[in-house]
Amino acid sequence: MSADTTARPGRFITLEGGEGAGKSTQARLLADRLRSLGHECVVTREPGGSPMAEALREVILSGVAAPLGPSAETVLFTAARIVHVVQTIMPALKRGAFVVCDRFTDSTRVYQGALGKVDPKLIDSMEEIAIRDCRPDLTLVLDLPAKTGLARAAARRANEAADRFEAEGLAYHEGLREGFLAIAKAEPERCRVIDAGLAPENVADAIWAAVQDRLGLIS
Ligand code: TYD
Predict the structure, then answer these.
(1) pLDDT in tens, 71-88
(2) What's the gap in Å between 57 CA and the centre of ligand 1?
(3) Residue 214: enclosing H or E segment and its boundaries?
(4) Which CATH superfamily is domain 11-214 in?
């Protein structure tokens, strides 16, 4: 189902993928490109993206909720998503801006659903509650071998401790990669797989080509 673009003339682009794929760098580069053409672009992220959702992010990523299990974590990610959609994403889309979001519902499908084994019915109903007519127009799946992504994530955080999800083993991260690729295969009209192993400027060019192709020539 595509989003109702009359109710919200802006365009909603999400970036998804495993750890260390370069999503936040690419979100910034895409926003720079859109802004250089005179478009308003809001860059945001999940979990987080509004003050209340950022507070929930701290709770979730610290791991204090992990003992409650993946279903409880799904509820927390959904609570953060509801305020993010209401306070940040929808207002921007309604005024005609581009919104570029680092992770969104596909992360819940993969981390909590495919890997966390949360009941797909719960995942679907949480998704419905949180996003309603705020579905992404385009999802860019930044794809990278799990080993490469983990090495990049470790280099990026230097001496800081790995968060709740980065701390999982290689098999888990390979599972994440498969999960995102499966979504892209199932929803080719919404998703584009991007080779995130290229140099950042080449990844940015591939993303720009996908945006132009999916959303029409932007000038
Ligand atoms: P973050 O530091 O933003 O990770 P990354 O740089 O890899 O995007 O932390 C977000 C973590 O939360 C990441 O490990 C993925 C996880 N996550 C979920 O498990 N479910 C979700 O719905 C979302 C949005 C994120």
Answers:
(1) 999 999 999 999 999 999
(2) 9
(3) helix 200-215
(4) P-loop containing nucleotide triphosphate hydrolases (3.40.50.300)
